[in-house]
Structure formats: C-alpha cells, structure tokens
Amino acid sequence: MNILAFESSCDETSAAVVTHNGCEFSIKSNIIASQIETHRLYGGVVPEIASRAHTEVISAITYEALETAGLKISDIDLIAVTANPGLIGALLVGVNFAKALAAANGIPLVAVDHIKGHIAASYLLKEGPKPPFLALAVSGGHTAIYKAESYTDFRIIGTTRDDAIGESFDKIGRMIGIPYPAGRGFDELSREGFIKATSNGTSFYSKYKKSDAYRNKDMTLPSPALSDGTLDFSFSGLKTAAINLLHRYEQAGREVDKALFAARYTYEAVEAVAKKISAALKENPGLDLVVAGGVAANSHLRGRLAEVVDKAGVGLFIPPISLCGDNAAMIAAEGYYEYKKGAVATSSLNASALDSIEA
Ligand code: KG4
Ligand code: ZN
Are residues 201 and 72 in the same domain? Predict the structure, then answer.
C-alpha cells in the first residue's frame, strides 16, 4: 500500500510517500519545507505567516514527494493528513489540500492526530514497538506520558499542567541568546556546561551531580516533576525560577556562565522526565517505552532514558533525529493503522486545534 501523507500543524510543511508491504514500512520520500528562518525574525511562530507559507509550498512539495518516490498520484492507495492539534490556520491548509486531492482522485483519506503521528515515527524503525507500550511525547506543545493499547488507542497517564518542555527550552534559550527554536542550541550549550562542570570528556552527565557546579547555591533550580504521586509535570515553575535566576545575576552586576546555567536547566528537565518515566514503567511492568517529538532529539534525554529503560529491563524505541521533528512520514505510519481500523474521513473533515487523546 502506497500512502501519501501531509503535515502542516506548525512551522514545517511536509509531504511524504511511505509504503507498507504487509510486513513493514519503507519511506520512499519525506520532503520537509521549514519556515524556521522566517519565524526566527520574530522569536517564535507567527500563525498567520505560517498558514501563508504552508499554502505557498504545499503543491510543490507534493510533486517533489511523488517524484522522489517515483510514483504518480494514481499509484497512491491512501492519503493521510494531520488534522489536530496545532495552529488552526496551519492545519487547515493541509486538511483542505488533502481533502481536495483525495476527492479529485477517488483516494480514501484518513485524519491523523499529530501526537499519535510523532509516536508513529518509531513504527518506521526496522523493528518497531508492539502494543501495549508506554509512550513519552516531548515537543514544543506537549509533555505527556501515554499508555497505548493499540497503534490507535491511547490514554494519557501523565502530562504537564502548564508549559511544555520544548516551549520552555525555547523561551529560556531565547533569554540567553540562542536563536529560535532554541532546543538544539540548548542541547549543545548544556553539553559544554556538563563537560566544564565535571572536567571530563566522558560520562559528564552522570558525574554532574557530584560537581561543584551542581552544589552552587546561586544556580539552584526546582524540579518540574510534581511530587504529588501523579505522573504530572509543571515546567512553568522551572521556567520562572530560571528567569528569576538570570535577573538576580543581572541585578548583582554578575555575568552568568551560560553553559553552566544551560546544563543545570537541562539536568532538572531531563531528571524530571526520567523520574516520571521510571515511575510509569514501575506502574506498568513489562511495557516497552516509545519516545517521540522534537525534544526526543535531545542528546542528554536520549542517554538518560536509555539508562532508565535498561534498569527496568524493557525495550526503548526512539526515532532517528531526522524523524523526531515534524514530518509527514510519521503521519503516513499512523494513517496506515487508522485506515486499518476503518477510520476513513468524509468530506466534512475539519481541522481542530485541540488534542484528541483523552485522560
Ligand atoms: O515536535 P516538534 O518538531 O514540534 C511540535 O510539535 O511542537 O518539536 C519542536 C520542539 C522545539 O521546542 C525545539 O526547540 C525542540 O523541539 N527541540 C529540542 C531539540 N531539538 C528540537 N529540544 C531539546 N533538545 C534538542 N536537541
Ligand atoms: Zn510536532
């Protein structure tokens, strides 16, 4: 089965062709047109500009995706599109384009939830996860832990009560001069900080807790892991404390060591996720872990979660960095399972800014 998929929920327009041969997926093309340079001028995504930019490129990248795959529209058996959650104007561009293409060519259409799509990036791995499993979604808009009963049925078992982890990296990163989106720059700067704190080129993350930098009271930050027995987080508390820390340094006329500051921030964020994932794995013995979303590219988080999963004796599925961010190949993978379930969309399909996975 040849699947043509679209993703336009935020600041990346993507079209992909993915084939399922009855056993496994193979990515024939995965074209991503990023708008990051445009939004960087404003320090974040401007929704109106995002919608317009999606409209400008969606036809061209569809041709490119088909051409790269060596297929024609008549070879396509299924069209999948992200319908929620995301920026409503941005989503509508993909949904309307996919609807028109499906109707004009008599191809079935399926709607895909963006977060289920991120999780489905792991289904594209050579040996993907088998449900039931736990899934951690860490992105610009989400920080949540899910229990998947099947490839299409998810339940939230933990979530952030306010900001998402990626959004917090972007905001704090911006304050220390890292251009939008700050996640990757934050990751690299934190590595410098961990190495500096431990004077060690290897195992720097695990040695960090014993370092003088960690004991420095001026750099203390709170954990975003709520200690109320739930699997929930609060990233706004960590973010506010970090902003206050930067202000305190500024008022005292002291220069903050940005690398050590970034390392401390990353450490608290990553340890909080590790703590809640350990608890979730304990509550659900034997279930494997799938990690998904843009922040799944974070090198410190990847390393730490590998330790947690190892200790729990279960499997870890993380997509390669190239499939962690927004892309349409992951939407095709989820679309395949939605179609198998019989969830074909009608011409009344609409986009929605809201999550469809319930607690
Ligand atoms: O999944 P995604 O591409 O878009 C949303 O659905 O939100 O995630 C984007 C987020 C941004 O906040 C970006 O800064 C973050 O992922 N990100 C990272 C890294 N690479 C991207 N955060 C931490 N470390 C990274 N290496
Ligand atoms: Zn995303």
Answer: no
Q: What is the DSSP letter of 73?
A: G
How do residues 240-284 score in pLDDT, each as one tens digit? 999 999 999 999 999 999 999 999 999 999 999 999 999 999 999
The Å distance, Cα 279 to ligand 1 centre, comes to 24
Q: Residue 166: CB within 6 Å of ligand 1?
A: yes
The DSSP code for 223 is: -
184 in ligand 1 pocket by Cβ < 6 Å?
A: yes
pLDDT in tens, 45-79: 999 999 999 999 999 999 999 999 999 999 999 99
Structural domain including 235 reads: 133-318
Has residue 189 been placed in a domain? yes
Asked whether residue 358 is domain-assigned, the answer is no
Q: Are residues 8 and 76 in the same domain?
A: yes
Calculate the alpha carbon distances from 343 to 108, 331, 337 in Å.
Answer: 10, 14, 9
Summarised one tens digit per residue, pLDDT across range 197-226 is: 998 777 899 999 999 999 999 999 999 999
Give the DSSP letter string of 140-194: SS-EEEEEESSSS-EEEEEEBSS--HHHHHHHHHHHTTPPSS-HHHHHHHHHHHH
Please indicate, yes or no, whether residues 337 and 243 belong to a single structural domain of this protein. Answer: no
Q: What is the pTM of this model?
A: 0.97
Report which ligand 1 atom has the smallest distance to the Cα of 118.
Answer: 1
Say whether both 208 and 284 belong to one domain. Answer: yes
For residues 85 and 48, membership in a common domain is answered with: yes
Verify that 80 and 13 share a domain, yes or no: yes
Model confidence at 350, in pLDDT bands (50, 70, 90)?
very high
CA dihedral (242, 248, 253, 257) in degrees, to 10, reads -30
